[in-house]
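Q: Structure tokens for this one, please.
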Amino acid sequence: MERLFLSSSSPSARVDKWSSIWLAFPLLALVRMTSAWLNIINDCDETYNYWEPTHYLTHGFGMQTWEYSPVYALRSYLYVGVHAFLVKLVELFTQDKIMMFYSVRAILGLVSAFCESCFVSAVLRRFGSISARLTLVFLLVSSGMFASSTAYLPSSTSMYMTTMALSCWFNNRFSLAVFFAVGATVFAWPFSAVIFVPLCLHTIYIKGIRFSLTRGTLSLSIFLIPSVICDYLAYHKWTIAVLNIFLYNSGTGTTGEGGGAGSSVLYGVEPWWFYGLNLILNFNVIWLLAPLSLLIPFFVASWRRNLSAYGSLILYISPMFIWIGAMSCLPHKEERFIYPVYPTVCLCGAITTSLVYQSIRGPIDSVAESKKTDKPLSKGSSVRSFVGGAFLLAVVTVAVVASLSRSASLVLNYNAPLNVWQQLSQQQLRTGSATQDNVCVGKEWYRFPTSYFLPDANLQLQYVKSGFTGLLPGKFAPQNGTWVIPEGMNDMNREEVSRYTEISKCKYWIDLELNNQQESALSKSTDDWEVLYRYPFLDSSSSRFPYRAFYIPFLSTRKNVYADYVLLRRVEPSKKPTISGL
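A: Here is the predicted structure, written as tokens:
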């Protein structure tokens, strides 16, 4: 790698290493704290499969998905238990449940910032200072990292651990690399194992089979044994949740259907280019440059007659290509599935940018020698230096502007649910209630943020029948809810009508009132409801690209179409307007 990238033994690498570490973490921490406060909930799985069972463990009530039924036991309580422990730590300082929600997000952001800082340091040692600095810039600004770094999802946790595993691998610390790889697979997400095939093969080649087996077995024991014990205490039966979810999704479980994709296809399928489109939106020019990290280094290595360096490079960046390729072959696709390799997208984009820049500018040694001796560069070298600098500036500028524009669009266009549910919490705290009240949702059930936005058990979430015909979550039993077998659960996404309630039983109603919706807009069609709060939410079907995907000052607000995200309260009969004189 020395002739393609700055050698790890170079004095300048050691100096820049310290400056990168001390600079990277504060910058990344600041950006991740911003994400913790502003980031939307992008996936209802984050709410119902992770925040809700966590809320049940910490506050005694919450919504339960079929995956947490002891019949299926697809989710490990070790994972949600760790996060419930974080909530309890925060509870020592505040009783505000919404603050607990944002504080846990902030902790996740700090964990991500630490892992990313280690990654930048490892990139510096393995690939050189220019690649490291570009990787840091791309990590800081990319919309994909902004969204994934503070999400409470196994794929985000897998991203943290994958980043640490690759960092240790780049530094030839194979024991720790294996430890984090096993953690990403067993503690976070079993499918992450695919990412670590190159690491496993390299470890066996360098350290031997005995070393690999002993380190792998020890790491497996550290993560699997607590998981099995924790799940036994929760489900009251011996089970391996990480194995259950793998069998379900692979189609080898009891009800798996879907030709290798398992029953996950019941929740939708996407075309093969789905991830490519999402990566362009979230990484823009960074992603466009990332695949070229396979091609451009080959030409550079061939020109410098150092193909062995190219082989080493391919080994270290191959996890991204393997993972995205494998995920693209599966019919069921979701954006969160590629979270684990988001940092490597930044790395591959940085490597391509660095090599093009260095190739245009010319040999680094000659430029450095010119600066050292105060000898002016030749006219040709000056032109190359200027063009190289212009290319570097253009890439960074496009990456920064497009990424910030995308992040701003997500926050400004889609943060209404968090704002509206927060207003509901404050409304309920102001008025108080000694009896149980219901807050109801119809088609907006999947944007319910979490029960941490409900002040107490006196305000309960209820569903009203809408156009959705799949299986909605139920409620954890008040007592022994982790091992009591709930009624009305199935793993085939069949609708369960017992989930619904009548709208007449609702005190509050939250909805997105679109112009073309099938359901009635209650704020406009009846006098039974009063509007407590409304907030604009992007009507994506009526808005055009690029204004809906990227925030363009002055233009997006004029070109986009917005609907009202409303919080309604039922009007008491005594307060309804009457017609006098009759």
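A few notes: The beta strands are 63-64, 437-441, 459-463, 474-475, 508-513, 529-538, 562-570. The longest helix spans residues 379-414.
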